[in-house]
Please model this.
Amino acid sequence: MDETEGSKKVFRTCILCGDTGQELVPDFREVEGFEDPAQEQLVREFEREVEETGLRGLCEACVQKVEAPFKDRPHKGTLAEALLRFHGRFLTDLGEMIDPDVREVLPDTSVLIDHSRFMRDEAEVVEALRRVGKPVAVYVIGAPYWGGDDEVYDDDTAAFMVFGLNETQDSFGYVNFGHFELIEQGPFANALDYASDGSPLASS
Model:
């Protein structure tokens, strides 16, 4: 059976350079017997979108261009280091942080110290993001966190984390982005261009 049977070729256009290449995409109209109606609906909607708008993405050359400003630069003393360290500490301490209001029930001094440290560090991150004035992106694949070069992110499902303030500007959140989402929803500030307090670095 020809591997192209039941498939069609559609154009995939790079959103940065406009380069258009061909890529094989299954023709789901010729696939029958979906067991899950919701899955079938999702597949049909995907195909309809492809037919109407084509496929958009990034070519390999542009992926490298997108990554370049975020990679192979020192994290030491940057906002990237502060954000990753805070996030790593948050993940580590998540199960131990207790609201101070319950100190009478669980008077664990170390837990209260962890919570106090978390609140202090969060306030510093919020102030730094206020100083930058817009969401900032960090390239996380292989990036050090929690203060040690031997402790790095090893989840390559998303290349970037974008940190930003909430509507009231008193706390922050983050989202995981791939290269395409970073470009489509950006531009974002590069956390390597700022000191840990959010002030621009002279070398940037």
